Structure formats: C-alpha cells, structure tokens
C-alpha cells in the first residue's frame, strides 16, 4: 500500500490545493510501479495551514503555478523513494517515453514496460534485453511507429548506449552494457517516433528473488 | 539488497504550526511503532487522492466522506495506523475508522470530523480499536513535537515492509515569504497506484 501526506505552512485554498495535489500525483505517485498491484488503501493527502502568512493562494493567484511546481517536484522526490524501497529491489529505473501522440499514450507505454515481469527480471539480471522493452511497448495498445522506434540506455556519464535505432537493432557493446547495468540507477529511453512530441517519465524497479521471498513469507 | 540508509535525512526544515509523532500501540506483533499523528495548530485546508481500486478500505471511504462534507476546510489532523489495513471489514470497519477520527478530534479539542484517517497492513481483519484509541489519547499531547526526530518517528510509524522511513522537506520563497514543505510516505509492495 502507498500512503503519504505532505503539509505546508503556505496559505492555499482547499480547491486550489486539491487541484495541485491531483496535478502533482498524476506526475509522481501515479507514475510509479513496484509490482503491478494496486492497493485497497492507497491515499495521499495534503494540508496547508497558512501559518507562515502571505496572500491566500487560489486557482487564479499569480503564484499558483509556482507553488504547484514546488509541490510536484516534492511529490516526485517522495514517490521515487517508494520505488527505491520496492520489496527486494536492487535497481532504480527511470523510464522516459518520448514522442508519443499524447501524454496518456506515453504513460500507457511506460506502465506496460514497468509492469513487464520479463523486463524487470532482465534488469535484475543486468541484461540489456531491448526485445522485452519493445515487446511491452508493442502490446501497450497505443499508436507507435515500429520503423521509427528507438531504445537506448542512458548512463550517469558518457554517451547513450543505443540498442535499437529507427526499428533496427544496433550492435551492442556488451562490456559497455554490463557497465551501465551494473549501476543501481538505470535510465531507459524509448522514442516512439510518432511525431506527436509527447513525453512521460515513470519510475520502477527490478524484480529479484527477494521479492518472492518477502511476499511468500507475508502472512494474513 | 542495497543499503538504503543514505535516503534517510539527518535533518530537515519543517513547516510551522505542525506537531507530529508516533507510538507503539501493540497492534504490530513486533511492538514496533504503529500509530502516527500529525496535528496542525490551526485548522488547515486539506486535499487528498485515493485508490481507484473498487474495494476501497474503510479509512478511504471515511476520509473521502470527511473531505466531501467539509469541502476540505478546517482539517486539523491526520491519523494513520500500520499493521492492519482496515480493508474489507464492512460496517464495523467503517465505524472503527470514524472512531479514530472522532478520538483524534476529541483529544485535540477540535471537531469530530476534523481529521483524515489512513490505515495500512493486512487486509480483512478488524482493527484492534481499543489499542488504537488508547494510543491516540496517549500520543496527543506532550508526545507530539516538531523536531526532526518527531518527523522521523512519524514516518517510521506508518511503515510495513518498508526498509527505511521516507521523509523529505524543503524551503521555498514566494513574494519574500519563506515557506516550508514536509512530507512522508510509506510503501514497498502492492505498489502500482492510480489515485484520483
């Protein structure tokens, strides 16, 4: 179950706070997956008590966007901590889906990859298995251009490792791939090549033996 | 499995007007912290997003109802228990969720529908509500505080299979006024949220 809250001493009107929270959640907590399962209890709440003073922030206030951006960045930070603590996780994976026809399409593809057991076990096994990424992209049910789709791994430093460019597999430098996949943080870019220009960021983790042990042992 | 202790902050900048804390009520067999409360010194604006799972737990239903009837105004607290999700517990479970809200309201001296409630843990078991209400009474008062340790303790009180408490805070400035933002979360498994 995901639970959380954030609180501020800024003065924010309740309708504005609700709108900010929805915006922030859609780009943070609703963009994470550890194990595909949605709880009966997931809740994120926010309180704003106004003790620090200043003008009341409403939906039309000039500072609305600024405070929404602060809250969204903050929510992403919290959401990413949840992924880092995924049961049995050894990898923190950032998926960047690019050039989808819409944000929703990009998110659907990210969701599909993040929830693929085969992708997650490949990441655990440090295998640059772009075939599993492509497979999960293809069955996501959104418009993609197979002849324009590209997949790459982005290391913390140095050039990207291109695995698939415009639908054609690249010759993979296995030593470089191992070096990248040996890191705790892995970034995967999937460009759908639709010309739509919409992107999405999504965070997930690998699936390890430990995940099975933890959940095989958990008792009701 | 990696050492995650580097993600636990050793200090923070916390917003004014909030006190937090946690204690062990005995609901968790290990006697670990299992009840957390956040209280605002003045009534606050509130908002929340909830699971879209069709089987919504009692605290989800209660908090939605409270936000709906108050319009998200005059909310003074959040109370969270861990170890038991109070999910799929029928009318009795819903009553327990409101009992938590009412007890917090009474102990803080605010309205009976001035708190939001959350639960996490095992599905399908009733809360040990007597332990929880006793815990609320004990926790509200001198045990709540605003230090970094209080915030960290509050984050620990909502953990289940989590390996570290998730707490972040920051300061930002708007129009020359410095504001603070603090937040905490829990979750390690059954994580693929779609909240609305």
Folded structure, characterized:
The complex is a heterodimer of chains A (220) and B (196). Chain A is built from 7 helices and 9 strands; from the N terminus they run E-H-E-E-H-E-H-H-H-E-E-E-H-E-E-H. Chain A has 220 residues and is of the alpha/beta class. In chain A, the strands form 2 sheets. Chain A has a 7-stranded mixed beta sheet, sandwiched between helices. Chain A has a two-stranded parallel ribbon with strand order 1-3. In chain A, helix 1 (14-26) crosses helix 2 (64-84). The mean pLDDT of chain A is 96. With 196 residues, chain B is of the alpha+beta class. Helices cover 27% and strands 30% of the residues of chain B. In chain B, the strands form 2 sheets. In chain B, strands 1-2-3-4 form a 4-stranded mixed beta sheet, with helices on both faces. A two-stranded antiparallel ribbon of chain B has the order 5-6. In chain B, strand 5 (166-174) and strand 6 form a beta hairpin. In chain B, 53% of the residues are buried. Chains A and B meet through strand 1, helix 1, strand 2, strand 3 and helix 2 of A and strand 2, helix 1, strand 3, strand 4 and strand 5 of B. Strand 1 of chain A pairs antiparallel with strand 6 of chain B, so a sheet runs across the interface.
Shape of chain B: globular
The structure class of chain A reads: alpha/beta
Poorly predicted segments of chain A: none
Distance between the termini of chain B: 33 Å
The chain-level structural class of chain B is alpha+beta
Question: Brief description of this entry?
Answer:
The complex is a heterodimer of chains A (220) and B (196). Chain A is α/β, with parallel strands linked by helices.
